[in-house]
Structure formats: structure tokens, C-alpha cells
Queue: 2 jobs
Job 1
Amino acid sequence: MDLKIIDLTDTHAKFVVSGTRPDMANALRRTLMVGVPKMAIETVEFHLGPIRDEDGKECESVSPLFDEMIAHRLGLVPVPTDPDLYVFKDKCVCDGEGCPNCTIMYSLNKKGPAEVYSGDLEPLGGKELRVKDELIPIVKLGPKQALLIYASAELGTAERHIKWQGTSGTAYRYYPTVTIDVSKCDLCEECVKACPRHVLGSKDKKIVAVNLEECILCTSCVKACPRDAITTSGDDTKFIFEFETDGSLTARDTLRKALEVLEQRFDDFRENLGQLVEG
Ligand SMILES: [Zn+2]
């Protein structure tokens, strides 16, 4: 299996995987979607009763939304995840008590009238633990309303809840092949004009694919050619992948982690199968 990166930023990846099969490509797609662990807020504690500020002004611990809805919204906020540092809480040396290896603690203290945003979550720790997107609206507090919250984030995967899904728009397509029969082609360039993705062009008195990876196999060129000189097909051993991340992990880390998870799963499967055969 070979991997060629076309585009890689912190939140977007596009790459070509070759020398594989559709089932393996789908396994990678599913692992990118639900198999890569990331941090997300799991427990939220709400302060109850009156809250007094420095000026002696008193607010009530209420907001226009139910506490459950606020907790749910906080759960969906992207929490920065160091993929090589954090471990699952139930497998941590702290026995699930919560420690810097498995938990990130946040506090939120806001008095109305005000709008509460994800950026109001203050991490107990370094600045690098601040949430990735600071402008996600959580709730709008009215006069004399206040929120005092302690929230803890832990590692999980989207197999348990969607809030632990770090990727979106994860998809792959077959690598396109466009074949032009030069004995039939009369260089009318109808196919060049018909292609909505500007894949074809003329070069040295020949029609060639100048931008093949943009082809979506729509067959507009095939239909436009008056001499039936073009055929298109998808290569089922080569795939163009694309996905975005919510910023919790970088696209590079997400891909690296997905490949590690996949490898581990195949190892476990092989081991279990071995035991079954021996048994
Ligand atoms: Zn721990």
C-alpha cells in the first residue's frame, strides 16, 4: 500500500492510496471516522445557588437552557488532543480517578447579562489546553443569571458518542482513468469544453488529462465526443481520500493514528484467530 499526499493542512487532508482493495480503503475510511480517539468534555458539574461577585452583586445559578443542554453543547466543543500523551481513563494508572494523563479540567465562570462562548472555558493547566474554536455559542445569560461550571474532558472514540468524532466529510473515490483513442480523435476539443472540472487539455496536438485527480468520472467528455474516442473508468486498486478535522487533532496526526489503530486491530484479529486454530 502506497500513500501520496496531495494536500495537507492542520484541518484538511487529501491523499492517494494505491496498491490496495476497496474493502481496505473502506476500513481506513471507517477508522478515520470512528476509530481515532480524541478528548471531549464528558462530565460537567454545575454550581447551585446564589453566586456573589467581587462587588457584592448577587446572581442566581440559572440560565435559559436546561443544564443537560449546556452539558451537551460543551461536549461537542473541540478539545485539543495530544495523540501520544493521553490514555483512556479506565486504562490509566490513576484507576479512573482522573490525572493529567487522562483528564483535562476546565472551569467556566460567567455572569449575565452576557453571551457564553466555548472560549470562556478556562483550562486548569497550560495555554495549549484552551479549546480550539473559541466562538462557539453556548448560552445567552440574562440579567442576574450566572453560570459556574467545572467540566472534565476525557479520551473516547466515536463508537461510543459522536462528540469523540474528530473528522468530518471523510470519503474516498476510485482513482479515475481517462483513455483517449488517438486513431479516432480529430482534436475537435468538444470533450475539453464539456468537462466541468477542467481535467482535459490539448498538448502537442493531442488531447490529454492535464488534471486527472480532479476527474469525478461524470462521463461528460464521453457523451460530448462525436467520434466515441474517449472511455473513462475507476481504478479499484487506487483511491483518492479526503477528510477534514475539527481541530482537536491535526489532519496528519489523525491519519497516522488511524493507520496505527487499523494495524493494531488486524494484529488482535490475527492473534485471536491463531488461538482459535490452536485451541
Ligand atoms: Zn489518569
Job 2
Amino acid sequence: MEDFEYESLLGRARERIPKNISERSRWTMPEPEVLIEGNQTILRNFAAIVDAMDRDANHVYQFLINELGTSGTREQVRVLFKGRVPPKRIKEKIVSYVKSYILCGQCRAPDTRFMKEERTTLLKCQACGATRPVKL
Ligand SMILES: [Zn+2]
């Protein structure tokens, strides 16, 4: 995955949302601030990223841990990953979280919510009303 995809993904998401919604939600994602210190990798602005995502911090954290195949510690603001994780990989995983759990499958709007329906969880778009199943 190229480095620019993060920006273009989010730019695309914004473009496709009807104007009133994109203005209302003003969806921007902070760039991940990653610091490698000795044998651990620190995602310094985890809380800000989760805030922008409007998702459960623990869900995002577990996703990153699983995808990166490491363990870590979640603090209030930061996350510490065991080992040296290239910043690019962390960014890729955040993009993949956004694609899997935030963007609408139909209109690509980020204005979505999880919805429980019997035993499945659906991602429901607040912009166009489309739903798609997600695996939590
Ligand atoms: Zn939609």
C-alpha cells in the first residue's frame, strides 16, 4: 500500500458525502504520530484517532494488536506496541479499520453506526441508509 492512500482514501470519503453531511460531520482523521523507542512502538495520538473514528477504543485497539501480530498496552491517550513496528504499517492498519468498520459500502460516507440485528452486527449508514454486515 502506498503512503498516499491514507490521504486519498479520506479525501475520497469526504468527496462522496452529500455536502450538508460532510459539513455537519467535518470528518478528518489525524495522522498517526508514531514513535519507536527502544524495543517498543508508541502510537502517541491513539485517543485522537479513535475520537475521529467515533468507535469503541478497545475495539480499535484489539484490531490493531491482532493485525500487527503483537501485544501492547493501551493507555488513556497512547498505545504502546511491543517491538519495532514501522509507522507505515500502523497507518495501513488504521486505513484498513476505516475501510472495514467505518466507510459505507454504498456511498463511502464515514457517517455510520453499528446496529445489532439478532446475532449479526450491521454497519448502518446515516447518509444513505445502506447496511452491510460487519464482523466484530
Ligand atoms: Zn451510505
